[in-house]
Design goal:
The protein is mainly β. The protein contains 3 helices and 14 strands.
């Protein structure tokens, strides 16, 4: 068998019957030192705003008119009152009958779908009485009044109140985008949000926590459980991020009862200090959350 160990005789022909020879590789491996990923040098982000502009942007949002769900709710209820029995056919909701739109006798136009929810419950938990109130407005709709001013939304706004014994807990949230051109304040430009407000009250003590993000009047903020309380509600505790026009974020780190805090940009070292006095903000939010339709 010697040299024929890997060959067979078939009909006078010699054919291979053993494993074929492996083809020679045509791929040459690169030296180990050439296999490293390319190194990219990225410049540190450069901010358009300094500390003064960051401070002014925050004050523009949390100034005299704090964004809460009450403004879009009140505008919606007032505009729905301009409807009639045929259009939109319901005093508080735009039904799917008019997805493509209808015009009421007042000249106000309604389109899309909206839903209004409201409830009031009183129950007992042991010796305590539980009182729960809530309202919510949600949908994807547009209303144009007789003067041509637009109100439109894609999202929801809501508020609730829970009373148990001597404890009172209030909450509100806004999500999606909202605009009412007839508003004399922050809602007259399109805003977007995914933000919540929670107020805990026990006796005269009140704490407010704002969590989430919103874009109002061209300013985008993000709050990571920004807490107003601890006996000095004008000076909150937590991280407050402000989006710079260049695209990255400024971070303000605030300590409880301290009026000022360092501000950094793009994860870098602090580039300045900002100071706030939010005196009255908690009272304004509580007043809005206690304003029931």
């Amino acid at each position: 068998m010697r040299a024929l160990a890997h060959r067979c005789l078939l009909g006078g022909l010699v054919v291979a019957c053993g494993p074929p020879a492996e083809p020679a590789s045509t791929i040459e491996e690169a030296p180990a030192e050439d296999q490293a990923l390319p190194q990219l040098e990225v410049d540190d982000p450069v901010a358009d705003w300094g500390a003064a502009e960051v401070e002014a942007a925050v004050e523009r949002v949390f100034g005299d008119d704090v964004p809460t769900p009450v403004a879009p709710r009140d505008a919606y209820i007032a505009l729905m009152a301009e409807g009639d029995d045929l259009c939109p056919g319901d005093p508080l909701q735009i039904l799917d009958t008019f997805i493509m739109g209808c015009t009421a006798t007042s000249g106000t136009w309604y389109a899309g779908i909206s839903e209004w929810q409201e409830q009031h419950n009183v129950d007992r938990f042991g010796k305590y009485e539980i009182e729960l109130d809530m309202w919510a407005l949600l949908g994807d709709f547009e209303i144009v009044d007789a003067e041509g001013r637009e109100f439109h939304s894609g999202g929801h706004v809501a508020a609730w109140s829970l009373k148990l014994g001597g404890m009172h807990r209030r909450g509100a949230e806004m999500s999606g985008s909202w605009l009412w051109e007839g508003h004399d304040g922050w809602l007259d430009q399109e805003m977007s949000a995914s933000v919540s407000y929670v107020v805990n009250s026990a006796g005269s003590a009140r704490d407010l926590v704002i969590d989430g993000g919103l874009t109002v009047q061209g300013v985008t903020l993000h709050m990571d459980e920004l807490s107003f309380g601890h006996g000095c509600p004008a000076h909150p505790e937590g991280d407050l991020d402000v989006r710079d026009p260049s695209g990255s974020w400024h971070r303000i780190s605030l300590q409880a009862c301290e009026p000022c805090g360092p501000v950094s940009y793009g994860g870098g070292e602090p580039h300045g200090e900002v100071c706030f006095d939010f005196d009255g903000l908690v009272d304004e939010v509580v007043a809005d959350l206690d304003d029931w339709p």
